[in-house]
Design a protein that fits this description.
Radius of gyration: 21 Å
Structural class: alpha/beta
CATH superfamily of the largest domain: Metallo-dependent phosphatases
Number of strands: 9
Oligomer: single chain
Largest sheet: 5 strands, mixed
Distance between the termini: 41 Å
CATH class of the largest domain: Alpha Beta
Strand order of the largest sheet: 4-3-2-1-9
Number of helices: 7
Number of domains: 2
Order of helices and strands: EHEHEHEEEEHEEHHH
């Protein structure tokens, strides 16, 4: 059986505040509670991963592992297909030998070789975003997590674009499970490269309005700027889905 490599990050099993039952569902995840999130992720995971596959989890796998939930952790690990490698995040209890024993390896950083379009590519893995990662100038790919979908992750994307625009080649992907293109299941490197899309947050919506305003004013130079504001931004506002915007602030360093 073929042994593939797949990648995912920030599952946050047993973290109620990434569900609708928490005080603040800061990922806007679709799950009612931790039980539903765990069951749905197991189903999605096993639909994509075989027992022979190797899955690289880029940190924050389980929220606050302790004696009271260790059996649940054990049962969950036994239900998830594949050989699991943990690249540690800030919430992983790596001091627990019982926790670490369920993984093929536990390390804060990992380099592997995978393929894209049949060509070998170095893969650099860390829980945290690294702009000048090893071999970035030799077509290596950086995979990370940690920042979820937030103002922090938006800044990371802007930094990556700025570096590329200035000639510093970087190919960086956030593989957080909450990203629509990951959709709570480990993905192959080929899938990540082919399907990556940037999340649309409230700043993107605002930028859309500004761009529409500027374009309208450019197309109708005889109209006053105030008329352009009305026609480009206010008049069609029902089409912009303001009510659907999710206000995402920068997450605190220690999510609660």
């Amino acid at each position: 059986m073929e042994q593939r490599k797949l990648y995912i990050s920030d599952l946050h099993f047993e973290h109620i505040n990434v569900t609708r039952s928490g005080a603040r569902n800061f990922d806007n995840r679709p799950f009612l509670d931790c039980d539903e999130m765990r069951d749905k992720i197991i189903d999605k995971w096993n639909a994509e991963v075989t027992k022979a596959d190797h899955v690289y989890i880029l940190g924050d796998f389980w929220w606050k592992l302790n004696d009271s939930n260790f059996q649940l952790f054990k049962d969950t690990m036994n239900q998830l297909n594949g050989n699991k490698h943990l690249i540690t995040g800030n919430h992983d209890r790596v001091s627990s030998k019982r926790f670490c024993s369920f993984f093929e390896e536990v390390t804060p950083y990992k380099e592997e070789v995978d393929t894209v379009n049949g060509e070998p590519r170095s893969v650099i893995m860390s829980h945290y975003y690294i702009p000048f990662y090893n071999q970035h100038f030799r077509n290596a790919i950086m995979l990370h997590g940690h920042s979820h979908i937030s103002s922090e992750s938006a800044m990371e994307r802007r930094i990556t674009k700025m570096l590329n625009n200035q000639g510093y080649k970087c190919e960086i992907y956030n593989v957080g499970c909450m990203y629509p293109y990951i959709d709570y299941a480990p993905r192959t490197l080929q899938y990540i490269v082919d399907n990556y899309s940037e999340p649309k947050n409230e700043s993107d919506e605002f930028n859309d309005i500004i761009q529409a305003l500027l374009q309208y004013h450019s197309d109708h130079p005889k109209q006053s700027f105030m008329d352009a504001i009305y026609n480009a931004a206010l008049k069609p506002i029902t089409d912009i889905n303001i009510s659907g915007m999710v206000h995402r602030q920068s997450r605190p360093q220690n999510e609660v």
